């Protein structure tokens, strides 16, 4: 089964429950609503991995346990995280071969991924969502549903 990768940002809106929660449970923003709805409808593919760029934690797996926090990503923090983010992504890509990668990040979060193209295999199709939230939610949903 071919594997696919989604890279998204953390969200300002979070589940306020105390203690540790999986990142997918902690974040409650727009992208997480799309993903969780598809999971609830049993339409989320098993061969799709999710990585999250977090202002606090850097690049994390979606199942990482995290606490509630209130950090905001800015360009300075994104540049500070860049080497770590690229290094972790390179390590992940060395262990898993992905047919496609969808990047759904705002411009500030993209700063943390600057130069990522150099580490992506030529055989991997890269798509980057741009624009306003509505069309990006629609395109994210369509991309996830297109995975076989």
Keywords:
single chain, 5 helices, 148 residues, two-stranded antiparallel ribbon, alpha/beta, 7 strands, 5-stranded mixed beta sheet, Rossmann fold
What features would you describe in this structure?
The chain is built from 5 helices and 7 strands, in the order E-E-H-H-E-E-E-H-E-H-E-H. The chain is of the alpha/beta class. The longest helix has 21 residues. The mean pLDDT is 97. The chain is globular, with a radius of gyration of 15 Å. The strands form 2 sheets. The protein has a 5-stranded mixed sheet, sandwiched between helices. It has a two-stranded antiparallel sheet with strand order 2-5.
Rounded mean pLDDT is 97
State the end-to-end distance. Answer: 8 Å
Give the tally of β-strands. Answer: 7
Query: What global shape is seen?
Result: globular
Side-by-side strand order of the widest sheet = 4-3-1-6-7
Share of helix, binned: 25-40%
Helix tally equals 5
CATH superfamily: Uracil-DNA glycosylase-like
Listing every helix as H and every strand as E from the N terminus to the C terminus, the arrangement reads: EEHHEEEHEHEH
CATH architecture: 3-Layer(aba) Sandwich
Largest sheet: 5 strands, mixed
Show unreliable segments. none
Can you tell me the CATH topology? Rossmann fold
CATH class: Alpha Beta
- Structural class of the helices, strands and pairings? alpha/beta
Strand content: 15-25%
Q: In total, how many domains does the architecture comprise?
A: 1
């Amino acid at each position: 089964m071919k594997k696919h990768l989604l890279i998204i940002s953390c969200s300002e809106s979070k589940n306020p429950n105390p203690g540790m929660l999986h990142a997918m449970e902690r974040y409650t923003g727009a992208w997480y609503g799309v993903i969780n709805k598809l999971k609830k409808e049993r339409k989320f593919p098993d061969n799709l991995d999710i990585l999250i760029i977090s202002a606090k934690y850097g690049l994390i797996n979606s199942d990482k346990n995290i606490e509630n926090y209130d950090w905001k990503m800015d360009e300075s923090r994104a540049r500070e995280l860049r080497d770590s983010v690229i290094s972790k992504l390179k390590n992940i890509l060395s262990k898993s071969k992905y047919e496609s990668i969808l990047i759904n990040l705002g411009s500030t979060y993209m700063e943390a991924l600057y130069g990522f193209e150099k580490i992506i295999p030529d055989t991997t199709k890269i798509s980057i969502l741009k624009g306003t939230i509505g069309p990006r939610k629609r395109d994210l949903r369509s991309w996830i549903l297109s995975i076989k």
